[in-house]
Design goal:
By secondary structure, the chain is of the alpha+beta class. It contains 7 helices and 13 strands. This is SCO1664 family protein.
């Protein structure tokens, strides 16, 4: 029998990927270490097609003081639904489904097969020939060299150190001095040593700006650099949206560089579209039923309305820490 066909990124729509994730045979190859919740690297296969994915069972979620237990998987799916309703392809296809460890979130894997899983690189939409295992083994996930702030020299002579995951290496940095530099936006100063601070900056990037708007809409409480990934072709993808959609303001992000500035016409159009889809009886409102609570859905609508009314990126405020730290 020929091996399953890899699923190229451009060959299918996100909806078709979701269908594969929802109905394909799910095989777990190992548990990704270093996560606070249970996270598994897996593959799904159906009718000769196969793609790599992340499987996060509800049973493996650690309780949080401010979010109801057993709801993180649904919030991850809700974030993908809202992103699509805004017309943006920032969150990988994500579904709720049954798996070997019970119901959970299943999301298309972005990037290479993690060390220890075996097989070839699994680009966005494709999986290598990872070895099947009877029981999940721990798979260490190590960041690329230089990603964790070890010092990445730049051609312009500034002391620039990358912060976060593979995409964040080009999008987020710590800079010595007060000038973020051309093409960068300042977030604020961070204490990186007892006697030293550095300026946290992010790229003045259109896709990153879209993500800042999406995070404001879903009230993302944990936008770190490690959640930014790069799909083949360089497109930005964002993951880990389990702590979102709270009814209280909990926006915590590294993407404050546009705070208080006018929303782009593209953002206004996306907000207008999702506002219509979130109306009672609207398609996105219907899809969110069961993923978040009715009060959380009402708060989501209010945030969209408030953003449209203000016409600007939100400002940090309240008692909730505005910036996650450490930023990875």
């Amino acid at each position: 029998m020929p091996p399953p066909e890899r699923l190229p990124a451009a060959a299918v729509t996100p909806q078709e990927v979701e269908q594969l994730l929802a109905t394909g045979a799910l095989t777990v190859h190992g548990r990704l270490t270093g996560a606070s919740n249970a996270v598994f690297y897996a593959t799904v296969e159906d009718a000769g097609r196969r793609t790599a994915c992340v499987y996060k069972p509800v049973a493996g979620e650690q309780p949080l003081w401010d979010f109801p237990e057993g709801t993180l998987a649904g919030r991850e799916v809700a974030a993908a639904e809202v992103c699509r309703a805004m017309g943006w392809d920032l969150v990988p296809p994500t579904v709720l489904r049954e798996g070997p460890h019970g119901p959970g979130m299943c999301q298309q894997w972005i990037g290479p097969v993690p060390p220890g899983a075996g097989g070839e690189d699994a680009d966005h939409g494709g999986a290598g020939e990872a070895e099947d295992t009877d029981a999940a083994e721990d798979i260490p996930v190590t960041a690329p060299e230089g990603v964790l702030g070890d010092g990445v020299p730049e051609d312009d002579g500034r002391d620039l150190r990358a912060v976060g995951g593979p995409a964040a290496e080009a999008l987020l940095a710590l800079v010595d001095g007060d000038d973020p530099g051309p093409g960068w936006r300042a977030v604020g100063y961070a204490q990186v040593a007892p006697d030293r601070t550095a300026l946290l900056v992010h790229a003045d990037d259109p896709a990153l700006r879209r993500l800042a708007v999406l995070d404001a809409v879903i009230n993302n409480a944990d936008r770190k650099g490690g959640h930014l990934l790069t799909a083949p072709g360089g497109a930005l993808r964002a993951i880990d949206h389990g702590v979102a959609f709270h009814t209280e303001n909990k926006l915590r992000t590294l993407l404050w560089g546009w705070a208080g500035e006018p929303l782009t016409p593209e953002a206004v159009a996306a907000l207008t579209e999702v506002d219509a889809r979130l109306a009672p009886g609207g398609p996105t409102a219907a899809r969110l039923a069961g993923l978040i609570s009715p009060t959380e859905l009402a708060a989501l609508r209010q945030r969209v309305t408030a953003l449209l009314s203000a016409g600007v990126h939100p400002l940090p405020g309240g008692d909730w820490p505005a910036v996650p730290w450490p930023p990875i």
